[in-house]
Design a protein that fits this description.
The protein has a 6-stranded parallel beta sheet. Helix content is 49%, strand content 12%. Helix 1 (17-29) links the parallel strand 1 (7-13) and strand 2. Helix 4 runs parallel beside helix 5 and helix 7 packs across helix 9. The chain is of the alpha/beta class and 317 residues long. The protein is built from 12 helices and 9 strands. The chain is globular. The structure holds NADP nicotinamide-adenine-dinucleotide phosphate.
Length: 317
């Protein structure tokens, strides 16, 4: 006989890349007895209903956030960071006592600040951030394996119930993630350098290339394999999500941006002075970082991100 699911009822508010991946993973792993979902628009809700009927990844789709959380044991908000506070306020009166309320937002300080004041004392509020994603969004973009061997960072408040934290950690662990616990402030600083700044740089490079006079946009696309295309994947990420990240993690991002600008100035000076040794040393250090990421299992070991290269057609003799 199968063991009882970890949560009898799971409510998912927001059904895009992350909400959809949680539903698929939770269903595959039998983590929830019932999965109830909702999203902001009628179009997304209708699509999720179809996905539920076709693949069984949700049991019910409801019209409102308040309806979704009714009797739910675990509620996860997978929506843009900027609306988490409003949604917390909206669902607060309908939460089941003892329920765990969580989110997946890419910024943790702002989520805790915006949500906590609205939530009743008889629920467990434990913010979370699965450090996993792709550039795609919407109800069809999710997949059950998204969190496999990725990190999920929990930022419970200091007085959080240890058992509730453990249950949420088990949930994410069963979805394949490695769980780490830290403060929201530390999370925001770490993610500012590992995620938010790289996105800002990618957004900048892609628009700079697009605006360059003397190089046509068709040439930018045609010769993109020189490096540019790897930035375009990141720069294709969801505009709403990233607007909210920069609005809500302003201080940490500005701090990292300051460090980045200093390093950029050092490299600019080395190029201007023809200081090959400085450039070589710098690039040698960064190459080692790439190796470290691969060694930690956080990326493919294959060259060129493991892209497949078509066979070279044999020249007719
Ligand atoms: P997404 O694919 O754009 O999905 C967002 C979902 O939120 C949509 O279903 C949207 O509904 C719904 N939504 C928006 N406002 C809502 C509201 N007021 N009430 C109910 N539903 C609402 O976004 P995502 O990539 O899954 O990102 C969601 C969250 O995950 C963000 O906080 C982001 O920071 C975090 N995150 C993202 C990634 C990533 O790589 N994408 C990685 C880790 C964490 P409609 O479809 O009807 O508009």
């Amino acid at each position: 006989m199968n063991a009882a699911p970890l949560f009898p009822r799971l409510a998912l508010i927001g059904f895009g890349l992350i909400g959809g991946s949680i539903a698929r993973g939770a269903r595959t792993q039998g983590l929830a007895g019932e999965i109830v979902a909702t999203a902001r628009s009628a179009a997304t809700r209708a699509r999720v209903k179809e996905l539920g009927q076709e693949f069984g990844i949700v049991d019910r789709v409801v019209e409102t956030n308040a309806e979704a959380v009714k009797d739910a044991d675990l509620v996860i908000l997978s929506i843009p960071v900027g609306v988490c506070g409003d949604v917390a306020k909206e669902i607060a009166p309908y939460l089941k006592p003892g329920a765990i309320i969580s989110d997946v937002g890419s910024v943790k300080g702002a989520v805790a600040r915006d949500m906590a004041p609205h939530l009743p004392a008889n629920v467990h509020f434990i913010p979370a951030h699965p450090v996993a994603g792709t550039e795609n969004s919407g109800p069809d973009s999710g997949f059950a394996e998204l969190f496999n061997n990725r990190w999920c960072i929990l930022t419970p408040p200091p007085d959080a119930d240890a058992k509730a934290v453990e249950r949420l950690a088990e949930f994410w662990g069963t979805l394949g993630a490695n769980v780490e616990i830290m403060t929201p402030e530390h999370h925001d600083l770490v993610l500012a350098i590992t995620s938010h700044l790289p996105h800002l740089i990618a957004y900048t490079i892609v628009s700079t290339a697009e605006e360059l006079e003397g190089v046509t946009s068709s040439e930018v696309l045609k010769f993109s394999a020189g490096g540019f295309r790897d930035f375009t994947r990141i720069a294709a990420s969801d505009p709403t999500m990233w607007r909210d990240v920069f609005l809500t993690n302003k201080d940490a991002v500005l701090e990292m941006l300051g460090e980045f600008q200093e390093d950029l100035s050092k490299l600019t000076r080395a190029i201007r002075r023809g200081d090959g040794e400085a450039l070589f040393d710098h690039f040698t250090r960064t190459r080692a970082i790439r190796r470290g990421i691969v060694n930690l299992g956080q990326d493919e070991a294959g060259a060129d991100f493991g892209r497949r290269h078509a066979n070279l057609a044999k020249k007719p003799t």
